[in-house]
Every structure is written in structure tokens, then in C-alpha cells.
Amino acid sequence: MLTTPDLTESGLPTQEVLHRFHDQGFVHLRSVLSPEEVAGFRAAAEKLLAEEGPEIWGASADETQVHYVEAAWRKHPDLRRLALHPVVTRAAEHLAGGPLRLYGTDVLKKEPDVHLPTVVHDDEPGLPLAGLTRTLTAWIPLVDVPADRGCLIYVPGSHRRPLAHRQVHLAGFQDYRPMEEIWPDFPFSPRVAVPMRAGDVVFHDFRTVHMAGANTDGERRLAFASVYMDSDATYRPGVQDHPVAHLAPGAPVDGDRFPLIAAGPGATP
Ligand SMILES: O=C(O)CCC(=O)C(=O)O
């Protein structure tokens, strides 16, 4: 039985949550997963990290922001269950307002003291996809993430900034430009830190500017992120496109590797 105040009895985000997501570009849902579920998902994530030897998000090993394991949902059955969790996917589709597919999932680990803050970014330019209007990410902490454990920090309303202040696509990392260059108002924009308990979920729109602080509280930060894309997205060659590079440019990104997430109207949470 769900006890979250942010979902209705049938497991959908309340009107207030929906409004906040559209207005701010992110929304924090409390107590979506039970402690038992979180314990199982955390064990799976830890196993995967130990087995896989994580990849580095950062310019070099000395400048690591996050260690990650990509395609986690295809590497462990419990993480597949998390990526396709009916409560999470129904909430995602309701917030997005249209059909979605699973694009990718990462286990994300930020070690205390050694890992740097996560760079200011939005997700749009790093996705090798075209036709996106409602793509969003579910970021799910698998341990408590208080403010000083590298919690996510959002710029409310930044998903609504005009095209002139967005970088829509990165054909290569040489095209990368820092946020303050793309969006001169960024340094003056208010931001909101979102400390979270294990079992909460934060959703953010693919255009919402976000970052994460350094982890200074002595405990590892462990999280799982799923990107749910527009169901009719197509391949646009760009950075980090190895999951889709077998496709012809312009081809639909679909099939078993990118499943529709619809739980269906009768699905129980
Ligand atoms: O975990 C982090 O520090 C960053 C995650 C992130 O930016 C994302 O999932 O979009």
C-alpha cells in the first residue's frame, strides 16, 4: 500500500504535483518505494558496481564527478524491475503527458570527498535523439541523500527558457559550452537543493538545468536514474550514441532495447 502524499490512491501524481512539474521542471515525490524494495534495489546496484568496474563521468579519473554503470536495467533483473516499476513509470507518463519508452538507466555513485560536484547541465544536448518534447528522468536515491551528500540542485523554470538560451544538440564534445555562456541569466537564477530519503523519486524534464554538490558527509551516495524518452523519438548522431549507433540517422528508436513503459490503465501499483 502506498503511503506517499504526492500520489493519489490510484498511484498517479496529484494535480498539485502535475502543476509543480510543469511550472518548475522537476518534482520530488516522497516515499514512492518501500524500504524493502529499496534494500533489494540497493543490493543489486552494489553488486553491479562491484562486478562491472564503473565508468567515469568527468574529464579524467582525477576529475571524477560520478562513477556509473550504464544500461543497468539490462544487467540485473532487479534493476529491470526498478526501471519498469509500475508506480514510477505511470507517474512518468502522467507527468510527461504522453507515451514514453525507456531510453537508458544508470547506477550513479558519488564517493565522499574524492568526487567533484556534478557539472551544471540539462539532459537535452547529451541525448542523441530527435523529436523530443516530453522526455524526462527519474532519479531515485538508493540511500538517504541529505543536502551535503551530493544531492541534486535544480534551477526552477529553466526548462521553459527560450531556444536562444539552450544548447539543443552536441554533435561532439568539442561543441560543449558552459551553461553561463549559453544562458547568461544562469548565474543569477535561483536554485533549489533537493535532499531526499531513500525511496523518494525526483523527476526532471530533459531541459531543466541541474547539477549536484560534492559529497562531504562521509557516506557514499548511491542512486539509479532512468531516462524515459518520447515514444516516437528518432536517432540523431551525437555524443554518447553507442546505444543507438547501429541505427540509421532518423530511424525510430524502438524495439526490445527501448520498451514502451505504459503500464496500462488497469495496472495496479
Ligand atoms: O547523479 C548526479 O550527480 C547527476 C545525475 C544527473 O544529472 C541526471 O541523472 O540527469
From TrEMBL:
Single GO term (MF): dioxygenase activity
Keywords (A to Z) from UniProt: Dioxygenase, Oxidoreductase
InterPro entries: Phytyl_CoA_dOase-like
SUPFAM superfamilies: Clavaminate synthase-like
Gene3D superfamilies per record: q2cbj1_9rhob like domain
Top-level taxon of origin: Bacteria
The name this protein goes by in its record: Phytanoyl-CoA dioxygenase family protein
Record lineage: Bacteria, Bacillati, Actinomycetota, Actinomycetes, Kitasatosporales
